[in-house]
Amino acid sequence: MAGHIDHGKTTLTKALTNVDTDRLKEEKERQISIELGFAPLHEDEEIQISVVDVPGHERFIRQMIAGVAGIDLVILAVAADEGVMPQTREHLEILDFLGIRNGIVAITKIDRVDEEFTGLVKEEILEELKGTVFEDVPFILTDSLSGKGIEELKQLIILTLKERDTRDAKGAFRLPIDQVFTVKGQGTVVRGTVYEGKVEEGQLLKIMPNGIETRARQLQVHHQPAKAAFAGQRAAINLSGVSKEDIERGEVLVSSEHFSVTKTIDVAVRMVGDLEHIVKQRMPIKCHIGTAEVMGKIVFFDRNDLSNSEGEILCQLRLEEEVVAKRGDRFILRRPSPQETIGGGWVIDPNGEKYRFGQKTIENLSRKKEGTPKDRIKAALSDDKVLTVSEITAKTSLDELTVKEILKEEDFLSINSKEFTLVAIKEAVEEEIADRLNEFHLENPMKQGANKAELLQAMQNKYPKMLVEFVLNAAIEESAFQRKGQFLQNKGFYPHVPKSWQKRTDNLLADLKKDGYKVKPFDEYYASAGIPENLKGDLKRYLEDQEIVVPLDAQYYWHGDHFRKAVEELKKSTAAEFEVGNAKDVLGLSRKYMIPFLEKLDTLGMTRRAENKRIWI
């Protein structure tokens, strides 16, 4: 909901949603919006719609820009008794620079003027909209107090949004933060519009650009509890492990580190149509990108100043603070003093470098801006990791034949007959698996390896599960990793006792072996060896897996050599069928050891019990 101050945006929002978005005491007293306001409008099986009411006063332009970032549809409110005003024009320019193409003009307060005057206002608006992205948008006449046109506007909003393509929720999650607050008993909550990807309850996240790690403890979407939030949805996320003071509006909540954190950005800029002051080389600017507002300077490579709009200009922004950005992100530029919007554009490359002044740099930026078809495909796969041919064509605007030809090149990899990734991504996944396994081996040297299911689970927030499985299976075939049942190992790894406890383990085994068949409970040997209690589980499992010891039951263990010797003696000295008494005669053991030993043979499938007898298998 955009428009000039006092043109009825908040009242119109309330008429549509029955929610007063002016929450602050100061907003009530001054009767103007200062902060962003949010109100749920409509929800059914197909769609959820919320209204973002943005401040209209020029002093609150920062909040206005934060509010429209990531929006699908704009209602431009124009009061019938005032018509087009300065902020109306500025908001139109900002919407154009941000690439918002869907709009509806709501002429408000129509009960304050007669029908003829309303017609004149409409003509004035039509004239103002000529040549803008809103030139052909529909008009609705409304009065929020009497309710005229409100239901028609609501139905038009729903119809317009249902005709839009659903946002793509693939790829890494990104939410520019526009509100931070605390809820008693819950802790820190951030709110914003999900730009891309999805977030799930319990998911590990990072607050960029500072890299603070956190977790999504609870989610709300459109003011309702939810298990997940998707691209395009308005979400509030309760974060664990961070305080309100750790976070600021303008920071970004992400699920992946592939987003660039940068201060130097190559951009394509368009200036406003009627610049009041010349834009000079290296002039201070205020850059609004996502929900961030950062000071910096604009650097030209083919001029030293700009006095009027000359179409798209290739240049660079050098910022004083880091921001999170990626190719294609939109931004607005404002002059700090005197305050005015001077232009806007999109990010060509978030990782700009310092270039020489001259035409050669402009030519390089131009090539970078256009991007080869291969560059566009690589950029799409870098974002989403795995895509089908049809998904690539949709994201790159390339024809299917071109896409298929480029995918044959060595930079690309077919996962199956339908889906593709980059060789670089495959290598990155393999490297991360190796790093995770190496870390696991260092922490758990006596274990067979990491559980495959747990490894897949740990990586699925960053990569699709099927991609990790594909890379893992290929690496196992190439012997980069080893698989033992459900466990994974790095090549060349074998379970072992840490050097620091090897001598005491040897002493334990020597004592166990010395006692032959008539052993004490295993825990007594363990206690005598002086090995820390927290290692007991891993050590016992390791000794069992390596068949160095064999548990007869939960209490008694034999040295593996004695167990194998007992089996050999018993098999040599008994017939195909034998009874407990026969076994006792051979081994000279009491029932205390004999019964657990025979039951162990049954468990291992070496014998089968038939009433009072056992049969060798």
From TrEMBL:
Keyword field: Cytoplasm, Elongation factor, GTP-binding, Nucleotide-binding, Protein biosynthesis
Residues annotated as domain Tr-type G: 1-166
CDD domains per UniProt: SelB, SelB_II, selB_III
InterPro entries given in the database record: Beta-barrel_SelB, EF-Tu_GTPase, EFTu-like_2, Elong_fac_SelB-wing-hlx_typ-2, P-loop_NTPase, SelB_WHD4, Small_GTP-bd, T_Tr_GTP-bd_dom
Location in the cell: Cytoplasm
Molecular function terms, GO-annotated: translation elongation factor activity
Spans traversing the lipid bilayer: none
Predominant place of localization: cytoplasm
Tree of life domain: Bacteria
Entry-linked SUPFAM superfamilies: EF-Tu/eEF-1alpha/eIF2-gamma C-terminal domain (SSF50465), P-loop containing nucleoside triphosphate hydrolases (SSF52540), Translation proteins (SSF50447), Winged helix' DNA-binding domain (SSF46785)
Role noted for this protein: Translation factor necessary for the incorporation of selenocysteine into proteins. It probably replaces EF-Tu for the insertion of selenocysteine directed by the UGA codon. SelB binds GTP and GDP.
Name of this protein: Selenocysteine-specific elongation factor
Protein species of origin: Cytobacillus oceanisediminis
